[in-house]
Amino acid sequence: MKILITGGAGFIGSHVVRLFVEKYPQYQVFNLDKLTYAGNLQNLKDLEVEENYTFLKGDITDSAYLESIFSENAFDAVIHLAAESHVDRSISGPMAFVRTNVMGTVNLLEACRKHWLGQLEGKLFYHVSTDEVYGSLGDEGLFTESTAYDPRSPYSASKAASDHFVRAWHHTFGLPIKLSNCSNNYGPNHFPEKLIPLAIHNIKSGKPVPVYGKGDNVRDWLYVLDHARAIDVIFHKGKLGDTYNVGGVNEWRNIDLIELLCDVMDEKLGRQPGESRRLITFVKDRAGHDARYAIDSSKLMGELEWAPSVTFEEGLRKTVDWYLQNEEWLEEVTSGHYRDYYAQQYGER
Ligand code: NAD
Ligand code: TYD
Question: Does the beta carbon of 156 sit less than 6 angstroms from any atom of ligand 2?
């Protein structure tokens, strides 16, 4: 089987590529990535020698490019992760989200439709999406696969649009599809614009840790390798045309999470208990900040027998260890454009 994985140089994609290349030597894995600020080939350096791995540098918004790689390689399946993924960037510059997440996804669907025409048997377009398409919850309730879409940020609106297009290509053209909508991921290779790696980076460097608003927004956190395992099981065993919610059964208020992270960092860095908590700084809230995300993964857990493999405390410790052991990775990605982004978002360097 020839599998095209898009966005494989990014955070989640890099773990999915690694899992497929290492676990399935009989598959040919192609990683298509534009290498935006969020894509980093360093994440997959050691895989470059593997015979069943090929990197393709390209942009999913470029339909002529997609046509050329589909013609050359006759892919059997696509796992689509390439996206603009950061909510704050979608507020300061929404058009990149419309181009990549909406247009890019439709380009890929069209490439599959054209190249798989009349021979859909055994083909699969697997679209990786987010729980943010469901909107924002109050204190009670969970997102299920039948929760109505109610996206509220440019990011979640662009992902919701892409989900609708994927389902439309299934219903109208018979394209074999699967979707999954996952909660917030954390773990190694996470770009330090997102809450957990940004906080690790700032705590380590003794810089203020920015918490938006009152810090009472709630997110459901899943260790990234558990998301990759879920994608593996859905890819192989999920029902065609179906959607699966993926979550960690692990809700945290942002402020509680950051306090726990500060305590873990104190311990790992040999600081006095409570020292890092002094860095916590409440800053202006995000525009339209969704209050709570929480996901019901019982369909995935029941039908496909998936479950998270680590507790949050274990996963967070593994994550902190990884960032402390990979200082070069962090230094490399936090130079250059990152500094400009940080200055624009937080008003300092
Ligand atoms: P990321 O930003 O770390 O990586 C995205 C990757 O896509 C990068 O390598 C980037 O270079 C590539 N890319 C961007 N635009 C491209 C284009 N036009 N053509 C080709 N490649 C392009 O994102 P992530 O956090 O790894 O998320 C991956 C997917 O999972 C996204 O679709 C996202 O919506 C979804 N998701 C993320 C989370 C999360 O918590 N991070 C949760 C649920 C779902
Ligand atoms: P983030 O990691 O950007 O993921 P998402 O917005 O997709 O959930 O943010 C997680 C939560 O942390 C979210 O409620 C916003 C908040 N947050 C902060 O409080 N400070 C920060 O500097 C960042 C980046 C996020």
Answer: no
Q: What is the pLDDT of residue 336?
A: 80
Mark whether 131 is an active-site residue. yes
341 is catalytic: no
Q: For 232-261, what is the mean pLDDT?
A: 97
Q: Is residue 257 part of a domain?
A: no
Output the ligand 1 site: residues, CB below 6 A. 6-7, 9-13, 33-36, 38-39, 59-61, 81-85, 100, 104, 128-130, 159, 182, 184-185, 191
Q: Is the pLDDT of residue 123 over 60?
A: yes
CA distance 20 to 219: 28
Instruction: Answer yes or no: is 21 within a domain.
Output: yes
Question: Is there a domain that residue 201 lies in?
Answer: no
What pTM was computed for the model?
A: 0.98
By most ligand atoms within 8 Å of CB, the mutation choice from 4, 5, 6, 11 for ligand 1 is 11
Residue 134 appears among annotated catalytic residues: no
Region 217-233: what's the mean pLDDT?
A: 98
Residue range 109-128: mean pLDDT, rounded: 97
In a domain, 145, yes or no: yes
DSSP 175-236: --EEEEEE-EEESTT--TTSHHHHHHHHHHHT--EEEETTS--EEEEEEHHHHHHHHHHHHH
Provide the number of structural domains found in the chain.
1
